[in-house]
Design a protein that fits this description.
CATH topology of the largest domain: Rossmann fold
Order of helices and strands: HEHEHEHEEHEHEHEHEEHEEHH
Strand content: 15-25%
Number of strands: 12
Distance between the termini: 43 Å
Strand order of the largest sheet: 2-1-3-4-5-11
Helix content: 25-40%
Number of helices: 11
Oligomer: single chain
Length: 347
């Protein structure tokens, strides 16, 4: 059954043990128990994607465990057309001091709403900044070095592939996901220009991040054409790609959050974006008064906010020699000896 946002928030408040009283205006964003209260609106796919959204949620859980904050969340319906209404519902709540939009699709709406509510703090993960738009002083965009991380994923794929054919599957065809594809292709070519890369996208709208069936279909097609490794950047749709890897007895490189547990032995690695750590760090800037809006914060390779997974679970799949080579590449990217332009998208 589809509930209204108001009823949904009330239900969440009840679960969290929040008081429905004392609703006077509180511009400091403290709830009735004196703790910072945060409102989070999920991207398409919502909780349970074992990827981007789950990582953001985990960041709030970390903040709650470490600092005792309270939080509420909303999952937009369908393709997320109601995300603007969800953000506004959070913004008008006097107890919520920080509002987080999870995903690039929030960029335009959260910019407008932040201007309307200057006493609230806003954060947008994977924020897309249009050059002609002034970012409000109470809004902080968060981005990751996806292209550099994807370069490492491409290098890894080229080092490990036996068929000399690899694949890429993106969710929504967009500027952000194009960075994943472009970085991956550049990484492959840096190791072996002769490796063939097959690319595909699930769709042109936000629902492309929540279609595992389509993800599986595209992946089975690429494996059928000889790809033995696919790099997926598709949110919840990526779960279908992982299932296709299992069925095809092939390998997949995942994104955002380590997904080895979904298909042990078939997940070569994950290009991780530490959304959870970035959320935690941002919450801490609100708590200590150092929060800075009006711009975009980059979380990258240097501090391993953008990274790849190598541990005891996948070490045998990657191989020590390949891992050592990847670490050398990573070091050269950080030092500028290998140039990966985050703004350039290869066609």
């Amino acid at each position: 059954m589809k509930h209204s946002f108001s009823l949904f928030l009330c239900f969440l408040c009840f679960l969290a043990g929040c008081s429905g009283q004392n609703k006077e205006k509180k511009v400091n964003g403290d709830s009735s128990d004196g703790k910072l209260q945060i409102g989070l609106v999920f991207d398409v796919g919502g909780r349970g994607d074992k990827s981007f959204n789950d990582s953001a949620y985990n960041g709030l859980e970390l903040a709650k465990a470490k600092h005792g904050i309270n939080f509420l969340f909303i999952e937009p319906q369908g393709e997320g057309a109601d995300r603007e209404a969800a953000l506004r519902q959070m913004a008008v709540d006097p107890d919520i001091g920080l509002i987080i939009g999870v995903g690039m699709l929030f960029s335009e709406d959260i910019t407008a709403i932040a201007s309307e509510f200057p006493n609230k703090k806003f954060v947008c993960i994977d924020y897309i900044h249009q050059p002609e738009v002034v970012i409000p002083s109470n809004l902080q965009g968060i981005v990751f070095e996806e292209k550099k991380g994807s370069f490492l994923a491409g290098a890894l794929a080229a080092l490990v592939t036996k068929t000399k054919t690899v694949g890429f599957i993106g969710g929504m065809e967009s500027s952000v996901i194009k960075k994943f594809e472009s970085g991956f292709i550049e990484g492959v070519r840096s190791i072996n220009p002769g490796v063939n890369v097959i690319s595909g996208y699930i769709g042109m709208t936000g629902s492309a991040f929540a279609n595992p069936a389509k993800g599986k279909e595209l992946a089975l097609g690429q494996y059928g054409k000889g790809a033995d490794i696919i790099y997926q950047a598709a949110g919840a749709s990526g779960l279908g790609v992982i299932e296709a890897a299992r069925e095809s007895k092939a390998l997949v490189i995942c994104t955002d959050r380590d997904q080895q547990s979904v298909a042990p032995g078939f997940v070569l690695s994950t290009m991780t974006k530490a959304v959870d750590r970035a959320v935690l760090k941002t919450v801490e800037t609100v708590l200590d008064g150092s929060f800075k809006g009006g711009g975009v914060s980059v979380f990258g390779l240097a501090d391993r906010y953008t990274d790849y997974v190598y541990n005891e679970k996948n070490a045998s799949l990657i191989g020590l020699k390949n891992h050592q080579q990847l670490e050398e590449i990573r070091k050269k990217i950080i030092e500028g000896k290998i140039v990966v332009d985050e703004t350039a998208v290869e066609q």
